[in-house]
Every structure is written in C-alpha cells, then in structure tokens.
Amino acid sequence: MALVTRLEKLTRDVATVLLPLNLRQWLRKQQRIHKLQSVPVGSVDFGGLRRLTPISSIFGQDRDLLTIERFYIEEFLEKHSDDVKGRCLEMGDPAYINKFGGDRVAQADVLNYVEGNPQATIVADLTDAPHIPDNTFDCIIITQTLQMIFEVDKAIETLYRILKPGGVVLCTSHGMTRVARREGVDDWGEYWHFTTQSKRHLFHRHFPKDLVEVSTVGNVFTCICNLHGLGASEIDPTELATHDPNYEMLVLVRAQKPLDA
C-alpha cells in the first residue's frame, strides 16, 4: 500500500513539473492556502447544527427576528435608495417603497398576480401584461419574485418595457437557499435559483450591459445559518459583511433603462 501511495505521489509530482510555470505557482499557492485553512479530519465540532431538520423550517420567521436574507435585501435597497423616487412599483405591498423612498416618491403602485390583495393597484402577470403602459415607472422594486416566475425572460422583458427611460429596476432573487414550496396549493411556486452568470445573461438580453450591475451576498457560514433559518442578529456583523463569490446566497441586480430608449 505504501508503495502504491508513493507511486501516486510521484505521478502527481511529474505531472506538476510538466505544467507551465505560472500554473505550477498557482497550484502551490492553493496548496499552501488549503493547508492553512484546513481542519484536521474528525476535529469538527458541529454543535447545535448537527441535526437533520432545520432550526426553523419557515425561513426564521417564527424566531421573531430579521432574517438573514431580509437583512441583505434591505442593505441592498438602502445602498440604492436614491433610485426609489418618482412613480414606483413594488410586488405585493409597498413596504420597501415607503421605507426607502420617503418623500422622493410621487406615487406608489403595487402589483399583485391575482385579485384579492387590497393594497394592489395593478393585477397582472409580468410575463403577459399589455394593459400596463410602456414607460410608466421610475423605479421597480422586485424582491424574491423572479424565481417564482417560470417564464422569467418574459418577465424581465416586461420590466424593461414599463420602466421610463432612465428608470431603474432593483431585483433580488434566491441563489443558495432552501426551496419555497407551494406546489399543489396554486400555480405559484419556486422554479429557479439563480447565479450571477444566469442573472447577468438574462438582464443583458434586454438592458445594455453597461447599465446592469450584478452582485451577490453571503459566505459559507451565513449560507449555513440561513439554511437553518437563523436571524441576522444571531450572527456577528463582521460575518454578515464578509461576501464570498463562491457562495451566492442572494443574487442582486440594479438595471437601468437608457435615457434615450
């Protein structure tokens, strides 16, 4: 067995020598980083996370805390609060228009997919909404909604169409998180989880590339905590503020319609 192990190591070493110098240097750097970050096998203490069911099965809403996802969503909207102005549209209710727009907002509209929402001023399916006029809104806030629309490309096309020239859409969607199921209840369900690559391609089909900003939030620890439904206040602020592009909890988009559109 020891001989086989030595032969395998020798084979790897020979292969490494045959690689280009810059690639060999990169591999050695990655090996050093891995050794510094690695935890010995058998020494991981899972503590309260060693369980087969989540701490909260409803995204932490039963813990009476601001969820990790909502913390990141509100941080994103606060960053772009100057865009929330004029005539604005939000899905379901106008909570974020009111919170981040303030007196910059001239009119707040609410879109609902079906009849029955007393706050809705527009009832429409974003994939087919010819009754919403072109060039209507200065800002559209659409949080955690695109993943619920199967024909997502058509929805983004509508968002572009109903924005005024110079208008902005602020969009957040699930990346690495639990599934929000409503299968069998109605035709509303979660069809997609996105990555920066997929969101960028989708928005670039309709918005100019230089007017689309795609970013992500999260790291391996906050993703684990979010999967368990922990609240944002249960995590250290420095942990929340650390974002690793390999762990895309949420995918965030700010896209602007050209002034000359």
TrEMBL record:
Pfam family, one: Methyltransf_11
Domain Methyltransferase type, chain residue ranges per copy: 119-171
Keywords for this protein: Methyltransferase, Transferase, Ubiquinone
A GO molecular-function annotation: S-adenosylmethionine-dependent methyltransferase activity
Domain of life: Bacteria
InterPro entries found in the cross-reference section: Methyltransf_11, SAM-dependent_MTases_sf
Gene Ontology BP term (one): methylation
Full protein name: Methylase involved in ubiquinone/menaquinone biosynthesis
Organism listed in the record: Moorena producens 3L
